[in-house]
Q: What sequence folds into this?
């Protein structure tokens, strides 16, 4: 039997996908990239943008039509708002939170599916962690919300990484920040940190298997450990331990993390990154808006000044680092003057990359009950203006790299014939002329010979 | 399977404060919270809303202050609750709170409407707190539990009548009065009030880092 899995949204969903694949592969299912070949069809959904939810409805509508002609089982998991969940229950055969993935084989069994091979691999899961057996009141005290009651079992599933050199490692799930534009606290529940012992074990295994790029994932990755009230490492302490693994093993690899929140971006985090070679000198720090009033309406709990002071500390301590960000334009009530402040800070900070989104209300998020009062036309205009600033500054930075030699990680075949695609430690996209696909997954040295907006070109040294 | 993730709490009673505003008291189940934090409550998972805790940390129950708004799908249903009814509650989070090592500082609390809720919790939880509370309301009849604050610490700023301790908006009070730099200012409620009040404070060269905000709507 074959399965098809559609993954929408962020890196967290991509990481979840690796674990869903592991469970299905261990049951004897075979993954296919062609949905017409599959008998089991699944979606890892995303609620961050309406567009993603629309895709879920469109796809299940198609699959349900196919059911008239062949036997199919459909499932959906991932980030799902309660409202959509109720509708999905009528459209999909199985709907479950990803934290209950370990129960997926039983769900399929109850559905009458006999798996082609072992059906259920008892060794798949590690013993349930002791905290899972504690009374619910104590679990609550420990910050473990019921939505994430089974998250430890989920994390214990050893993933089938989609790559042999890049891996996502979830270290935390959920969010306590309640930004008014975001529905994550309603889809993934409150922040729960994964045990550092498990994280470090997974990372060391990846390093020993010669993985080159590891990204730590969490909705608020740098508030890692805070939910455990002193009983777990903090985020900088976790990074320090990873740095020490790098030194001990002597392996060459880069560790990234996403997404941090400015509120928890302490000097300790910046300091530890500066001290360890394996901690990549690239920081993705969402700004969302360059205006304090908009930040207040967004309930971001940081000011522009605070954000700028963090960036200054990063540039002071790690001058070679690249800075990425997220920005929303056209948030409820954003005036021309408020937007102008965002444009100014874009000019000032000169981000290497910015993921700029036009605001759209997310059902369930607090701001969805407010007027979406900036016109689509105005949002497009603001998006265009910021994109131009980004391109201009990115080009300036990339030109500064000309003639420099640098290490890059080869990622795959480039769209341009005869070229391979890669990125450097700062995650600047790079390509170079080569047909040698054996280089994919390896570090190579290049000299930068051309710079363009958002990317560079090099030649092998 | 497994999606009913919120805890079910029993309602003790509803206490009507005026025609549209009421307090819901319900089980606490030992929930930890810091005064100023908010919880999610609702009647089903699709209609969870954030409400600041109104009660004190010493209380063995939880309370929230709710305004039934005409178009509010959730608040109108909450108004129908009765003793013994069950509601869904998710535990407290949030950063709108007094740091434990700063309880001896002086505080200026500024609220509009039900934005007074976190301040009620702070004041009841920390009886020694040195504070002044400005409450922006249209009429005196829309003040909530005014007798629970020490005399002289609550200034009801009434914008549509002259029966409050101050006749005018909270922003007008801020313009007309000195605000010492060593105060910690906490603003909660309507975003326009919060942003206007912040502008006035900044114009007076009040330090931005001493301003804390919680936007309700």
A:
């Amino acid at each position: 039997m074959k399965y098809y899995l559609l993954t929408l949204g962020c890196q967290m969903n991509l990481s979840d996908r690796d674990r869903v694949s592991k469970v299905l592969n261990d049951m004897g299912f075979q993954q296919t990239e062609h949905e017409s070949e599959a008998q089991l069809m699944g979606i890892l959904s995303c609620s961050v943008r309406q567009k993603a939810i629309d895709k879920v409805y469109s796809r299940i509508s198609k699959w349900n039509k196919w059911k008239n002609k062949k036997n199919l089982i459909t499932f959906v998991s991932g980030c799902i708002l309660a409202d959509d969940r109720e509708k999905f229950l009528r459209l999909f055969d199985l709907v479950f939170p990803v934290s209950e993935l370990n129960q997926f084989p039983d769900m399929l069994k109850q559905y009458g599916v006999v798996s082609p091979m072992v059906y259920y691999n008892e060794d798949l899961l590690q013993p349930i962690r002791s905290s899972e057996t504690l009374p619910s009141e104590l679990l609550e005290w420990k910050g473990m919300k019921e939505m994430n009651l089974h998250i430890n079992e989920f994390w214990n599933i050893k993933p089938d990484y989609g790559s042999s050199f890049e891996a996502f490692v979830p270290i935390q799930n959920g969010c306590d920040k309640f930004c008014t534009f975001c529905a994550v606290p309603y889809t993934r529940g409150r922040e729960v940190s994964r045990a550092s012992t498990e994280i470090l074990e997974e990372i060391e295994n990846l390093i020993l298997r010669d993985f080159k790029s590891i990204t730590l994932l969490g909705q608020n990755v740098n508030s890692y450990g805070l939910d455990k009230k002193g009983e777990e490492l903090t985020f900088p302490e976790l990074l320090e331990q990873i740095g020490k693994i790098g030194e001990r093993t002597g392996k060459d690899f880069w560790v990234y993390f996403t997404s941090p929140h400015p509120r928890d971006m302490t000097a300790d985090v910046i300091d530890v990154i500066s001290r360890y070679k394996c901690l990549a000198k690239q920081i993705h720090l969402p700004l969302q808006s360059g205006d304090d009033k908009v930040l207040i309406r967004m309930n971001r709990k940081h000011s522009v000044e605070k954000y700028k002071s963090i960036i200054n500390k990063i540039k002071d301590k790690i001058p070679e680092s690249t800075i990425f960000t997220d920005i929303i334009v056209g948030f409820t009530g954003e005036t021309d003057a408020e937007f102008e402040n965002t444009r100014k800070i874009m000019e000032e900070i000169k981000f290497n990359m910015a993921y700029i989104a036009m605001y759209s209300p997310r059902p369930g998020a607090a701001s969805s009950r407010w007027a979406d009062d900036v016109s689509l036309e105005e949002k497009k205009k603001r998006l265009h203006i910021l994109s131009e600033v980004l391109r201009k500054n990115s080009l300036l930075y990339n030109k500064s790299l000309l003639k420099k030699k640098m290490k890059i990680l080869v990622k795959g075949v480039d769209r341009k014939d005869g070229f391979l695609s890669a990125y450097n430690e700062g995650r600047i996209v790079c390509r170079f002329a080569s047909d040698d696909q054996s280089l994919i997954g390896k570090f190579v040295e290049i000299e930068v010979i051309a710079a363009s907006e958002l990317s560079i070109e090099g030649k092998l040294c | 399977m497994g999606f009913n993730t919120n805890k079910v709490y029993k309602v003790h009673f509803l206490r009507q404060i005026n025609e549209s505003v009421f307090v819901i008291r319900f089980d606490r189940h030992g929930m930890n919270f810091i005064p100023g934090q908010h919880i999610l409550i609702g009647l089903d998972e699709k209609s969870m809303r954030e409400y600041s805790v109104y009660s004190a940390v010493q209380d063995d129950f939880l309370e929230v202050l709710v305004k039934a708004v005409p178009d509010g799908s959730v608040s109108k249903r909450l108004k129908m609750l009765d003793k013994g009814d069950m509601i869904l509650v998710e535990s407290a989070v949030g950063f709108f709170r007094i740091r434990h090592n700063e309880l001896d500082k002086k505080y200026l609390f500024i609220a509009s409407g039900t934005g007074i809720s976190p301040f009620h919790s702070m004041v009841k939880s920390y009886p020694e707190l040195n504070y002044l509370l400005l409450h922006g309301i249209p009429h005196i009849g829309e003040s909530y539990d005014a007798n629970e604050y020490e005399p002289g610490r609550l200034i009801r700023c009434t914008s549509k009548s002259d029966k409050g301790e101050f006749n005018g908006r909270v922003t007008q009070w801020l313009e007309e009065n000195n605000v010492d730099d060593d105060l910690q200012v906490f603003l909660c409620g309507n975003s326009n009030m919060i942003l206007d009040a912040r502008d006035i404070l900044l114009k007076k060269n009040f330090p931005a880092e001493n301003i804390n905000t919680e936007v309700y709507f």
Chain B touches chain A through 30 residues (CB under 8 Å). Helices of chain B lie at 75-78, 117-125, 170-176, 191-203.
